[in-house]
Specification:
single chain; mainly alpha; 2 domains; two-stranded antiparallel sheet; 2 strands; elongated
Length: 276
Amino acid sequence: MVDVLTYDCYRSFLKDYYDFKKAANQAFSFRYFAKKANLKSGNYLKLVMEGQRNLTHKTVPKFIRALKLQTWEGIYFENLVFFNQSKEVEQKQYFKKNMALAIQQKQAAKLSRDQFQILNQWYPLVIKEMIQLSDFKLSPRWISERLDQHITISQAKEALALLERLDLIHIDKASKTVNIPNQMTQSENTVPASKELVLKYHHDILDRAQKALKEQDVNQRCSSSLIVAINKKDLKKAFEKIRAFRNEMDAFFVKKETYDAVYQLTLQLFRMDTDV
Protein backbone atom coordinates (compact mmCIF):
# COMPACT_ATOMS: atom_id res chain seq x y z
CA MET A 1 0.00 0.00 0.00
CA VAL A 2 1.19 3.54 -0.80
CA ASP A 3 1.05 5.89 2.21
CA VAL A 4 0.78 9.55 1.22
CA LEU A 5 1.99 10.64 4.68
CA THR A 6 5.48 9.38 3.87
CA TYR A 7 5.92 11.57 0.76
CA ASP A 8 7.36 15.05 0.37
CA CYS A 9 6.49 15.26 -3.34
CA TYR A 10 2.91 14.69 -4.42
CA ARG A 11 3.90 13.82 -8.00
CA SER A 12 6.10 10.97 -6.71
CA PHE A 13 3.19 9.78 -4.61
CA LEU A 14 0.88 9.79 -7.64
CA LYS A 15 3.43 7.85 -9.70
CA ASP A 16 3.83 5.21 -7.01
CA TYR A 17 0.07 5.08 -6.51
CA TYR A 18 -0.49 4.50 -10.21
CA ASP A 19 2.19 1.79 -10.40
CA PHE A 20 0.76 0.08 -7.32
CA LYS A 21 -2.80 0.06 -8.69
CA LYS A 22 -1.64 -1.04 -12.14
CA ALA A 23 0.35 -3.94 -10.71
CA ALA A 24 -2.67 -5.05 -8.71
CA ASN A 25 -5.10 -4.66 -11.64
CA GLN A 26 -4.06 -4.33 -15.28
CA ALA A 27 -7.46 -2.82 -16.05
CA PHE A 28 -6.54 0.26 -14.02
CA SER A 29 -5.72 3.17 -16.34
CA PHE A 30 -5.45 6.95 -16.56
CA ARG A 31 -8.89 7.02 -18.13
CA TYR A 32 -10.33 4.92 -15.31
CA PHE A 33 -8.88 7.31 -12.72
CA ALA A 34 -10.21 10.31 -14.65
CA LYS A 35 -13.69 8.80 -14.55
CA LYS A 36 -13.47 8.21 -10.79
CA ALA A 37 -12.21 11.78 -10.28
CA ASN A 38 -14.82 13.26 -12.62
CA LEU A 39 -12.11 14.82 -14.80
CA LYS A 40 -12.73 15.88 -18.39
CA SER A 41 -9.25 14.92 -19.61
CA GLY A 42 -8.58 11.19 -19.67
CA ASN A 43 -4.82 11.62 -19.29
CA TYR A 44 -4.87 14.43 -16.71
CA LEU A 45 -3.29 12.22 -14.05
CA LYS A 46 -0.45 11.38 -16.43
CA LEU A 47 0.18 15.07 -17.18
CA VAL A 48 0.24 15.91 -13.45
CA MET A 49 2.60 13.03 -12.69
CA GLU A 50 4.98 14.22 -15.39
CA GLY A 51 4.88 17.83 -14.19
CA GLN A 52 3.10 19.16 -17.28
CA ARG A 53 0.05 20.19 -15.27
CA ASN A 54 -0.50 21.45 -11.74
CA LEU A 55 -3.38 20.64 -9.45
CA THR A 56 -5.75 23.44 -8.49
CA HIS A 57 -8.15 24.14 -5.64
CA LYS A 58 -10.88 22.64 -7.84
CA THR A 59 -9.04 19.49 -8.88
CA VAL A 60 -7.45 18.61 -5.51
CA PRO A 61 -10.78 17.51 -3.93
CA LYS A 62 -11.48 15.38 -7.01
CA PHE A 63 -8.12 13.66 -6.65
CA ILE A 64 -8.70 13.08 -2.94
CA ARG A 65 -11.99 11.34 -3.68
CA ALA A 66 -10.52 9.21 -6.47
CA LEU A 67 -7.50 8.30 -4.34
CA LYS A 68 -9.89 7.37 -1.51
CA LEU A 69 -7.83 9.27 1.05
CA GLN A 70 -9.16 9.46 4.59
CA THR A 71 -9.67 12.79 6.38
CA TRP A 72 -6.13 13.54 7.58
CA GLU A 73 -4.56 11.89 4.55
CA GLY A 74 -6.63 14.16 2.35
CA ILE A 75 -5.60 17.24 4.34
CA TYR A 76 -1.96 16.18 4.09
CA PHE A 77 -2.24 15.62 0.32
CA GLU A 78 -3.88 19.00 -0.26
CA ASN A 79 -1.20 20.85 1.69
CA LEU A 80 1.54 18.77 0.07
CA VAL A 81 0.28 19.80 -3.36
CA PHE A 82 0.42 23.51 -2.62
CA PHE A 83 3.66 23.13 -0.65
CA ASN A 84 5.28 21.67 -3.80
CA GLN A 85 3.71 24.20 -6.16
CA SER A 86 4.21 27.32 -4.04
CA LYS A 87 7.10 29.69 -4.79
CA GLU A 88 6.87 31.88 -1.68
CA VAL A 89 8.74 30.90 1.49
CA GLU A 90 5.97 31.98 3.88
CA GLN A 91 3.36 30.00 1.99
CA LYS A 92 5.57 26.91 1.94
CA GLN A 93 6.08 27.19 5.70
CA TYR A 94 2.33 27.46 6.19
CA PHE A 95 1.60 24.34 4.13
CA LYS A 96 4.45 22.41 5.76
CA LYS A 97 3.07 23.22 9.19
CA ASN A 98 -0.34 21.90 8.13
CA MET A 99 1.29 18.74 6.79
CA ALA A 100 2.99 18.13 10.14
CA LEU A 101 -0.31 18.68 11.94
CA ALA A 102 -2.07 16.18 9.66
CA ILE A 103 0.59 13.55 10.42
CA GLN A 104 0.22 14.13 14.16
CA GLN A 105 -3.56 13.84 14.03
CA LYS A 106 -3.44 10.73 11.88
CA GLN A 107 -0.96 9.06 14.24
CA ALA A 108 -3.01 10.10 17.27
CA ALA A 109 -6.15 8.61 15.76
CA LYS A 110 -4.32 5.38 14.96
CA LEU A 111 -2.80 5.19 18.43
CA SER A 112 -6.19 5.74 20.04
CA ARG A 113 -7.60 2.79 18.12
CA ASP A 114 -4.63 0.64 19.10
CA GLN A 115 -4.89 1.72 22.73
CA PHE A 116 -8.54 0.75 22.68
CA GLN A 117 -7.83 -2.61 21.08
CA ILE A 118 -5.05 -3.67 23.46
CA LEU A 119 -7.35 -3.42 26.47
CA ASN A 120 -10.47 -4.45 24.59
CA GLN A 121 -9.20 -8.05 24.68
CA TRP A 122 -7.52 -9.91 27.53
CA TYR A 123 -4.79 -11.63 25.51
CA PRO A 124 -2.47 -8.99 23.87
CA LEU A 125 -0.75 -8.15 27.16
CA VAL A 126 -0.61 -11.83 28.04
CA ILE A 127 1.23 -12.48 24.77
CA LYS A 128 3.62 -9.63 25.62
CA GLU A 129 4.61 -11.50 28.79
CA MET A 130 4.78 -14.84 26.99
CA ILE A 131 7.64 -13.46 24.90
CA GLN A 132 9.85 -13.81 27.99
CA LEU A 133 9.25 -17.55 28.23
CA SER A 134 12.39 -19.60 27.63
CA ASP A 135 10.63 -21.72 24.99
CA PHE A 136 8.74 -18.88 23.29
CA LYS A 137 8.27 -19.23 19.53
CA LEU A 138 7.43 -16.34 17.23
CA SER A 139 4.55 -18.30 15.79
CA PRO A 140 0.84 -17.39 16.02
CA ARG A 141 0.05 -21.10 15.93
CA TRP A 142 2.35 -21.80 18.90
CA ILE A 143 0.85 -18.89 20.83
CA SER A 144 -2.68 -20.15 20.18
CA GLU A 145 -1.75 -23.64 21.31
CA ARG A 146 0.08 -22.34 24.40
CA LEU A 147 -3.10 -20.44 25.35
CA ASP A 148 -5.01 -23.71 25.03
CA GLN A 149 -6.79 -22.57 21.86
CA HIS A 150 -8.59 -19.80 23.76
CA ILE A 151 -7.62 -17.49 20.89
CA THR A 152 -7.32 -18.25 17.19
CA ILE A 153 -4.12 -18.17 15.14
CA SER A 154 -5.42 -15.06 13.41
CA GLN A 155 -6.05 -13.32 16.74
CA ALA A 156 -2.52 -14.16 17.89
CA LYS A 157 -1.09 -12.71 14.68
CA GLU A 158 -3.13 -9.52 15.03
CA ALA A 159 -2.09 -9.16 18.68
CA LEU A 160 1.60 -9.36 17.77
CA ALA A 161 1.14 -6.64 15.15
CA LEU A 162 -0.76 -4.52 17.65
CA LEU A 163 1.97 -4.82 20.29
CA GLU A 164 4.57 -3.86 17.71
CA ARG A 165 2.63 -0.78 16.57
CA LEU A 166 2.44 0.40 20.18
CA ASP A 167 6.20 -0.18 20.54
CA LEU A 168 5.61 -2.64 23.38
CA ILE A 169 7.61 -5.25 21.46
CA HIS A 170 10.17 -5.24 18.65
CA ILE A 171 10.08 -7.97 16.00
CA ASP A 172 13.11 -8.79 13.88
CA LYS A 173 11.61 -10.55 10.88
CA ALA A 174 15.03 -11.49 9.49
CA SER A 175 16.11 -13.45 12.56
CA LYS A 176 12.53 -14.26 13.60
CA THR A 177 13.16 -12.98 17.10
CA VAL A 178 11.18 -10.64 19.31
CA ASN A 179 12.11 -8.61 22.36
CA ILE A 180 10.52 -6.16 24.79
CA PRO A 181 12.28 -2.76 24.52
CA ASN A 182 11.12 -1.50 27.91
CA GLN A 183 9.96 -4.15 30.32
CA MET A 184 7.80 -2.10 32.67
CA THR A 185 5.70 -3.18 35.62
CA GLN A 186 1.90 -3.22 35.47
CA SER A 187 1.61 -3.56 31.71
CA GLU A 188 -2.02 -2.48 31.58
CA ASN A 189 -1.02 0.91 33.00
CA THR A 190 1.37 1.63 30.13
CA VAL A 191 -1.56 2.29 27.82
CA PRO A 192 -3.90 5.27 28.42
CA ALA A 193 -7.55 4.28 28.40
CA SER A 194 -11.02 5.46 29.26
CA LYS A 195 -12.79 4.45 32.47
CA GLU A 196 -15.18 2.23 30.50
CA LEU A 197 -12.32 0.44 28.78
CA VAL A 198 -10.48 -0.20 32.05
CA LEU A 199 -13.68 -1.60 33.54
CA LYS A 200 -14.10 -3.96 30.58
CA TYR A 201 -10.49 -5.10 30.86
CA HIS A 202 -10.83 -5.97 34.54
CA HIS A 203 -14.18 -7.65 33.86
CA ASP A 204 -12.50 -9.88 31.27
CA ILE A 205 -9.69 -10.70 33.70
CA LEU A 206 -12.22 -11.66 36.39
CA ASP A 207 -13.93 -13.87 33.82
CA ARG A 208 -10.60 -15.63 33.20
CA ALA A 209 -10.19 -16.00 36.99
CA GLN A 210 -13.57 -17.73 37.25
CA LYS A 211 -12.55 -20.17 34.54
CA ALA A 212 -9.27 -20.84 36.34
CA LEU A 213 -11.19 -21.74 39.51
CA LYS A 214 -13.09 -24.37 37.55
CA GLU A 215 -10.37 -25.70 35.28
CA GLN A 216 -7.01 -25.38 37.05
CA ASP A 217 -5.62 -27.67 39.73
CA VAL A 218 -5.20 -26.13 43.21
CA ASN A 219 -1.44 -26.55 42.83
CA GLN A 220 -1.52 -24.15 39.86
CA ARG A 221 -3.50 -21.35 41.46
CA CYS A 222 -3.98 -19.51 44.75
CA SER A 223 -7.39 -18.13 45.62
CA SER A 224 -8.32 -16.63 48.98
CA SER A 225 -10.68 -14.04 50.38
CA LEU A 226 -11.06 -12.01 53.54
CA ILE A 227 -14.13 -10.20 54.83
CA VAL A 228 -13.46 -7.56 57.48
CA ALA A 229 -15.19 -4.64 59.16
CA ILE A 230 -13.26 -1.41 58.56
CA ASN A 231 -13.20 2.32 59.13
CA LYS A 232 -13.69 4.06 55.80
CA LYS A 233 -10.99 6.59 56.70
CA ASP A 234 -8.45 3.74 56.45
CA LEU A 235 -9.34 2.95 52.83
CA LYS A 236 -6.74 5.26 51.29
CA LYS A 237 -3.95 3.63 53.27
CA ALA A 238 -5.34 0.18 52.49
CA PHE A 239 -5.27 0.94 48.74
CA GLU A 240 -1.67 2.11 49.07
CA LYS A 241 -0.72 -1.15 50.81
CA ILE A 242 -2.34 -3.16 48.02
CA ARG A 243 -0.42 -1.22 45.37
CA ALA A 244 2.79 -1.67 47.36
CA PHE A 245 2.16 -5.42 47.59
CA ARG A 246 1.49 -5.61 43.86
CA ASN A 247 4.76 -3.81 43.14
CA GLU A 248 6.62 -6.06 45.58
CA MET A 249 5.30 -9.16 43.80
CA ASP A 250 6.18 -7.70 40.44
CA ALA A 251 9.76 -7.06 41.57
CA PHE A 252 9.94 -10.59 43.00
CA PHE A 253 8.96 -12.21 39.71
CA VAL A 254 10.79 -10.02 37.18
CA LYS A 255 14.20 -10.47 38.83
CA LYS A 256 14.44 -13.96 37.33
CA GLU A 257 16.46 -14.62 34.19
CA THR A 258 14.28 -17.30 32.63
CA TYR A 259 10.55 -17.95 32.73
CA ASP A 260 8.34 -20.93 31.94
CA ALA A 261 4.80 -19.69 32.65
CA VAL A 262 2.61 -16.57 32.59
CA TYR A 263 0.34 -15.75 35.55
CA GLN A 264 -2.21 -13.06 36.33
CA LEU A 265 -2.20 -11.48 39.79
CA THR A 266 -5.56 -9.88 40.57
CA LEU A 267 -6.37 -8.10 43.84
CA GLN A 268 -9.74 -6.66 44.81
CA LEU A 269 -10.90 -4.76 47.83
CA PHE A 270 -14.53 -3.74 47.53
CA ARG A 271 -17.48 -2.95 49.73
CA MET A 272 -20.02 -5.63 50.62
CA ASP A 273 -22.63 -3.46 52.41
CA THR A 274 -24.18 -0.07 51.66
CA ASP A 275 -25.15 3.04 53.58
CA VAL A 276 -28.80 3.19 54.71
